[in-house]
Amino acid sequence: CFVEYNESKNVCRVFPPYQICELPFGEPRLAHLKGTKKVVYLEDMIEHQKQIRLVEELAANAWCAHTTQGVEGWRLRWNDVITGRANSGWAGNIGECTIAVEDRIQIAEEFYRRRNTAVRFHITPTTQPAHLDSILESRQYAVITPTNVEIASVAEVLARSKSNHAVNVSEKFNEEWYGVYLAAEQANEFSANVRRGILQRM
What we know:
Distance between the termini: 38 Å
Largest sheet: 4 strands, mixed
Radius of gyration: 20 Å
Low-confidence stretches: none
Strand order of the largest sheet: 3-4-5-6
């Protein structure tokens, strides 16, 4: 595990193993340590966490379920069981909470069971509380769809791809593109209609 010490608050935050791979390790600043180990500095980690939080929140805002219930910053999302992201609890809130995490989990479980849907939680390196994955593991939850989120500037992507393909950006729903997307997803008629709703809510 990795321990972050906050000197001003005199508290420690422990990062579970799966989060360690997300931390920005680099070369030490001290000359005598360079080349001997990799380190992570608190200020770099804070900026890294801010970036992850922003990306995750933008993604949560964009991929909208048609039914959402807020529980102190958590978003319980349901979308006719089409796509895991739109049918999972997003635990990305920041700040003080008055409802105990165990009670919030119970609210989430009841939310999905009322809809005859498996209970899923969307866990990220900025999930709150940070140890939510451990709590869920103790309740017999298991990891089912690990996902890597990669980001880069458009300029960098174009430079690396060395592609001559043009990109068209439209504010309107593109039926031709959607047909290609459905073919790639091998979606049936029901799934196609639900996915259309997600994309049109963007």
